[in-house]
């Protein structure tokens, strides 16, 4: 199959019934055999929640189930417009659930459970995928961009001649929650869904012990799928309390002493099991892959916060580590927050996005590309009050 290496934005027509985003992003981008589907909500982007996702008193379906079905229907139409089939070509799902838990006190106590009953979501999701469904990363967050939406979903598909092969954990380890594949291989690539220490919830494990156990599980899973931790290209790490970062990073460096993968660490998210303090998902190359990975470093951008490179390059794809408005010492860069003596001056969201994009472009240029070729972003805000000004700055790079 001929694959266009240039990013190509895909916009499903309104006749397909997919609501048109009002913010500056493409619903889907194709590049190099990958298809990146932007996060979708159960909103019509006009009035808020459409009538079909509001439960009726006589209806046994919950709002979460109705919203899940609405979103996956729209994602399926978007994917179809790219030439793929959601049921057979999806390799990874990201799920973001709205929950009031954990609150600040719970985070401080190490209680990171989001407390959401995922049964209605899983019931609706299984209608759209072959069993087992693709690997997933699911986390609880405090709010989404549209009022009363309970869920945001994002997927990646492959547009190639390969077939997906799924794997589960070995029999001596309990499978993760949700009836999904623990691992999926597609061509040279392997995707591992979130793993936690939930199967050891009867034990009181420290953050270091949980991190070690999670990486041990991922190592075994990678081996089952024909890969290894040394082949990890990108890691997604979810923690509750930001203070856990340093302890996690110490264990991480023991598992990845050399050629560490690109890594994004997302703090203050809700976990799917009581007692969990860390969850990790990985993207890897298979051991017999034709592709190889290389580390990208440049002095034109700040040093990473922890044991991670600025980026990892594989073929025509570049995977960046966490980008925040910090300097090489892990401190917020000068001039990027408001002066406490003048709290109404300045636009921190715009200034911090500009700072990050400058650094991202420097890393991209070191790898032989530029920000104009970005195909996917995941952006997290400490508060959504900063969204409008940050997205305005972001959009200026993609005229």
Automatic annotation (TrEMBL):
Gene Ontology terms for molecular function: deaminase activity
InterPro entries, sorted: RutC-like_sf, YjgF/YER057c/UK114
SUPFAM superfamilies: YjgF-like
Cellular component aspect of the GO annotation: cytosol
Record-linked Pfam families: Ribonuc_L-PSP
Protein family (similarity comment): Belongs to the RutC family.
Protein's name in the database: Uncharacterized protein
The species this protein was found in: marine metagenome
């Amino acid at each position: 199959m001929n694959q266009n290496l240039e990013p190509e934005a895909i916009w499903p027509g309104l006749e397909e019934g997919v609501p048109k985003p009002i913010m500056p992003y493409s619903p889907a981008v194709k590049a190099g055999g990958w298809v990146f589907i932007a996060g979708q909500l159960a909103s019509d982007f006009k009035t808020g929640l459409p009538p079909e996702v509001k439960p009726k008193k006589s209806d046994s379906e919950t709002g979460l189930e109705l919203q899940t079905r609405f979103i996956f229907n729209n994602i399926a139409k978007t994917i179809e417009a790219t030439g793929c089939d959601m049921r057979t070509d999806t390799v990874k799902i990201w799920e973001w659930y709205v929950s009031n838990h954990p609150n600040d006190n719970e985070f401080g106590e190490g209680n990171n459970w989001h407390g959401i009953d995922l049964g209605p979501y899983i019931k609706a999701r299984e209608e759209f995928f072959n069993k087992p469904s693709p690997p997933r990363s699911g986390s609880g967050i405090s709010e989404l961009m549209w009022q009363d939406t309970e869920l945001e979903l994002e997927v990646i598909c492959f547009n190639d001649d390969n077939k997906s092969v799924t794997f589960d954990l070995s029999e001596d380890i309990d499978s993760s929650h949700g009836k999904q594949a623990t691992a999926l291989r597609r061509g040279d690539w392997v995707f591992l869904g979130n793993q936690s220490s939930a199967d050891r919830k009867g034990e009181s494990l420290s953050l270091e012990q949980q991190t070690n156990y999670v990486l041990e599980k991922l190592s075994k899973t990678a081996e089952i799928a024909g890969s290894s931790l040394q082949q990890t290209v990108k890691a997604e790490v979810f923690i509750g309390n930001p203070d856990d970062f340093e302890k996690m990073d110490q264990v991480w460096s023991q598992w990845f002493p050399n050629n560490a993968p690109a890594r994004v660490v997302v703090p203050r998210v809700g976990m799917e099991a009581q007692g969990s303090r860390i969850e990790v998902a990985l993207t890897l190359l298979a051991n017999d892959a034709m592709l190889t990975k290389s580390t990208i470093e440049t002095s034109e951008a700040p040093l990473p916060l922890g044991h991670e490179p600025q980026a990892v390059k594989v073929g025509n794809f570049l995977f960046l580590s966490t980008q925040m408005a910090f300097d090489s010492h892990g401190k917020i860069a000068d001039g990027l927050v408001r002066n406490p003596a003048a709290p109404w001056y300045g636009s921190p969201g715009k200034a911090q996005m500009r700072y990050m994009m400058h650094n991202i472009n420097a890393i991209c240029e070191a790898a032989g590309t530029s920000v104009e070729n970005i195909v996917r972003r995941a952006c997290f805000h400490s508060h959504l009050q900063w969204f409008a000004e940050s997205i305005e700055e972001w959009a200026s790079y993609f005229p």
